[in-house]
Amino acid sequence: MTEKPFIPFHRPSVGHDEMQAVQRVLDSRWLTTGPVAKEFEHQFATFVGCKYALAVNSATAALQLSMDSIGVGPGDEVLVPTYTFTATAAVVIHAGARPIFCDSVKDGFNMCPDGAERRITSRTKAVMPVHIAGQPCDLDRIQTLATKYSVHIIEDAAHALPASYNGRRVGAISELTAFSFYATKTISTGEGGMLTTDNEEYAERATKMRLHGINGDAWKRYSKEGSWFYEVQHAGYKMNMCDVLAAIGCAQLAKCARFWERRQIIARFYSEHLSRFEELQLPPPANRDAEHAWHLYILRIKPELLAINRNDFIEELKKRGIGTSVHFIPLHLHPFYAQRYGCKRGDFPNAEDAYSRCISLPIFPDMTDEEVERVVSSVKDVVEQKRIRSMAVA
């Protein structure tokens, strides 16, 4: 019997439109930041509903520019969830400040607002909610905290395009929001990101800082409209997005709604069929006033009902040709953060519980119906073979 092809955790949804867009940039002979990046920014701001969108080379860059925009520095603290990727906390450290870890909500992944409030001090400069898997955080509660304690909000929305909250797209809600266009994200440019804001001062500052702290439209200095003269006004960074990647971004953004619809269909199919198994816990439901982006479908096993743990479950799926991933190893469990800040296992029980049981299933727009059904049947097969109840009966 012919072995079925492996279903990867992710497969990018790129095609002729993206190739044509890149070819047009190559034909123009202008490869770095230029008119296509500007157009991508305009389209993205319109799509999200914000005033300013700045294309950068990663979501990490967008977060770092956000730190700079609000003046985070030595002596400051920034609240971050421990259940996130390292970039969320690393940008705080690079700014000279201290990340203050917060636990997840019980039976969920996002930052717990009540727990975050207990960790606010006179040194707290900002809070950085992360919309894990594309599920919006409780932004009403977080906004209440920010107002009460006079702290800034920077949303890490790396997973959250095109999520919405109370009828507004994520990216048009808080002071500053960072998006990712990494290879596995809901739209992708391979590498890249976007910073959104309605604050003109922040936008002007970030525009300069993303390209060496140079004044004006520095990218134009080699064009017919530009000038060779420039002034360095700040010790800036190198975080701009080139037109080659922006061209892919424009093509991908045009498909964003369609990609999202397909992700929703896959998520509903998973939930409908996997909810029948008591050994499994589905992703937490989104707030009734929120729209989930479904960047990830994070399934959790109930190890007390199975003869295997999460790691073994992943290996069993791999044997059946299904690629998966784990999102995330809580930051306080990593050697760097544990040693630097004295963290230890048990400090953040909700995050640790989620991590110990979670498996991210494949969910991407180009998945065929047959592939989606294979994922479900493979999960079902593992559960039925490894459940404790069936073994006891045998």
What does this structure look like?
The protein contains 14 helices and 13 strands. The chain folds into 2 domains: 16-255, Aspartate Aminotransferase, domain 2 (3-Layer(aba) Sandwich); 257-393, Aspartate Aminotransferase, domain 1. The chain is α/β, with parallel strands linked by helices and 394 residues long. The protein is globular, with a radius of gyration of 22 Å. β2 (77-81), α4 and β3 form a beta-alpha-beta unit.
How are the strands of the biggest sheet laid out side by side? 1-9-8-5-4-2-3
- State the end-to-end CA separation: 29 Å
Along the chain, the helix and strand elements come as HHEHEHEHEHEEEEEHHHEEEHHHEHH
Q: Globular, elongated, flat, extended or rod-shaped: what is the shape?
A: globular
CATH architecture of the largest domain: 3-Layer(aba) Sandwich
In a nutshell, what does this entry contain?
By secondary structure, the chain is α/β, with parallel strands linked by helices.
SSE blueprint:
Blueprint: H1 16-28, H2 35-48, E1 52-56, H3 59-69, E2 77-81, H4 86-94, E3 98-102, H5 113-118, E4 124-127, H6 139-149, E5 152-156, E6 164-165, E7 168-169, E8 176-180, E9 193-197, H7 200-209, H8 243-253, H9 256-274, E10 280-281, E11 290-291, E12 297-301, H10 310-319, H11 335-341, H12 349-357, E13 358-361, H13 369-386, H14 388-393
Helix pairs in contact: 1-8, 2-8, 3-4, 3-7, 9-13
